[in-house]
Amino acid sequence: MGLFKKKVVPLKPYKKIDIQKEIKRAEREDESLWIKCSSCQELLYRKEVERNLNVCPKCSYHFPISVETRIALTLDKSFTELYTRIEPVDFLKFKDTKTYKARLIETKEATNRSDAVVCGKGSIDGIDVLFAIFDFTFMGGSLGSVVGEKITRLLEEGAEKNLPVIVFCASGGARMQEGIMSLMQMSKVAGAIFKLKSAGVPYLTVLTDPTLGGVSASIAMLGDIIIAEPKAMIGFAGPRVIKETIKEKLPPGFQRAEYLLEHGMVDLIVSRKEMKRKLHTLLSLIVA
Ligand SMILES: [Zn+2]
């Protein structure tokens, strides 16, 4: 079996950091040299965190990463993006502090993306897969009609072509600017997942920080195998809302990946460094 013949490539030693050069670069790019870990609250040297695949060296909290970095870390050099022409529409003429239309234009410019998910086709150590990655920087990775439609098409293509589907989730939940149309994406996607499962094709989900609301209640939790990144927040409503509603102290680690693993809600916690290797192992065991 190819799996056992794989060579283990040793990690390269770190290059020494030139502090003066880094300070100048940070000033030039208007970027802070330090970041605070949202899990252990430690002040960390940004470059060190970046070198560590954006994982906190003190507590192993996995910071969010860009879609491009995720593709580079997880897939072979074979990624082809799919369904790039689907664009969101402001059919409700929704307005809060600003119009949905204006918010979309602003977010599209800032992120250079048409909506909050990127779908594509690629391979993981030679195993072909269909792939979706949420972009949290696009309106909190919210599930609107475009995200729902793209993931549905991906799942239907998986069923048709017998290709496993992997979805990396990072979302605050449904997109309120699309009202009921956003909520109905949950059942639409659930229907497509059922279709994929009925065809005997695996559906894997990877829950990253944070996976909340309608996304956790549909796309994320319906995986055949549900994987989480260490310390990721996963739940429906956030802990503050729950605490205020039930008026009780929440247990330590509530809604974090480790707590969910302990209570049987996720199957595995896999670090970023191990993710590609682990996905390959799982796929080689379950793909027919
Ligand atoms: Zn930390």
Description:
- With 288 residues, the chain is of the alpha/beta class.
- It has eleven helices and nine strands.
- A seven-stranded mixed beta sheet has the order 3-4-5-6-7-8-9, with helices on both faces. A two-stranded antiparallel ribbon has the order 1-2.
- The longest helix is centred in the middle third of the chain and has 20 residues, at 179-198.
- The structure holds zinc ion (ZN).
CATH architecture descriptor of the largest domain: Alpha-Beta Complex
The geometry reads as globular
Q: Radius of gyration, rounded?
A: 20 Å
Could you give me the name of the CATH homologous superfamily of the largest domain? 2-enoyl-CoA Hydratase, Chain A, domain 1
Structural class: alpha/beta
> Which sheet architecture does the biggest sheet show?
7 strands, mixed
CATH class of the largest domain: Alpha Beta
> Runs with pLDDT <50, length 5+?
none
What is the total tally of β strands?
Answer: 9
